[in-house]
Amino acid sequence: MSKDLGLFHQKEFKIIHIDMDCFYAAVEMRDNPSLKNHPIAIGGPSKTKGVLCTSNYKAREFGVRAAMPTFKAFKLCPNLKLIPPNFRKYEKISAQIRQIFYKYTDLVEPLSLDEAYLDVTNSSHFNGSASMIAKAIQKEIYEVTGLTASAGVSFNKMLAKIASDWKKPNGLFVITPEQRLEFIKDLPLKKIPGIGKVSAMKMERYGLIKCGDVLKRDLFDLISIFGKRSALDLYEACHGISNSRVKQRRQRKSFGIERTFYEAFSDLERFEQEYQILILKYQERLKHMDEFHLKNREISHISIKIRFSDFQTHTKEVMISADVSDSIKERREL
């Protein structure tokens, strides 16, 4: 099949992706300046139990990262300062930041407390210049909160999100339609939103490491490897094409976490270890969840699903009471 993009059409938007720089850690350093020159992480509850929400850039120099078990973080950085999260404070600051977004557009899609997409296609501010709007937002965020944000600007959501990570911290990066193919050809596939570690490993087995590797392959070959839908999505992404629209807020119907293993295993002890890690990561994500999704909602049940190598799937549900639901929402903990 020809690699001509007649099959794919990119609608051109003006999208900004704002990502606060190590948000929770930055808030704590702002409120306690003595922490600025120390490696710190937000999480807990202790050095041996729990998982990290985030870390500052000083801690990242030691390899300390979000979603890392605390015991591992302290092995990498024994002098790490562990600070318990204060989500009420973070939510209040996040609300201040969101009000800044709404000065420029009504089309705001929050992804979490510390990042959001903005569609400024029809904004009249700065004569419609998305990069000038992004600069103004960064400036106002700093003036109002004392915190820095990185911004990515492009003609679609996918590239805007990739761009916001390009010049962190406190950076602004723009990808224009004319720069699209030149920029994306050397982009590692793992940088594309939605391509996780397992998917990237599978692609690497077929010699696909960068977007340019995909562009050199025939689409029929990709379909035979990944299936039609996944191949078309990958092919579009590697051409820098995404027509996903910025969606205004809708409450989530469910909230889950899962992991696919590259190789099947039957060791019960390993299963229990992996299960505990998933629980820790789930609770870390639960703490990150925007209060909007929990407002006026009741958690009705908790379920667990396991899928075997022969694709048989078993699910177990446990119904929970209103009191338990309120406790989970309040403590952000199972």
The computed structural class is alpha+beta
Shape: globular
How widely separated are the two ends?
50 Å
**Residue share in β-strands:** 15-25%
Strand order of the largest sheet: 5-6-1-7-8
Q: Write down the Rg.
A: 21 Å
Mean pLDDT over all positions: 88
Q: Count of DSSP helices?
A: 13
**What would CATH call the class of the largest domain?**
Alpha Beta
Element-level helix/strand string: EHEEHHEHEEHEHEHHHHHHEEH
CATH superfamily of the largest domain: Reverse transcriptase/Diguanylate cyclase domain
Query: What fold name stands as the CATH topology of the largest domain?
Result: Alpha-Beta Plaits
Number of strands: 10
Quaternary state reads: single chain
Task: Give start-end ranges of low-pLDDT stretches.
Answer: 1-6
Description:
With 334 residues, the chain is α+β, with helices and mostly antiparallel strands. The protein has four domains: 15-22 and 88-176, Alpha-Beta Plaits (2-Layer Sandwich); 26-85, MutS, DNA mismatch repair protein, domain I (3-Layer(aba) Sandwich), CATH 3.40.1170.60; 182-238, 5' to 3' exonuclease, C-terminal subdomain (DNA polymerase, domain 1, Orthogonal Bundle), CATH 1.10.150.20; 268-331, no CATH class. The protein is built from 13 helices and ten strands.
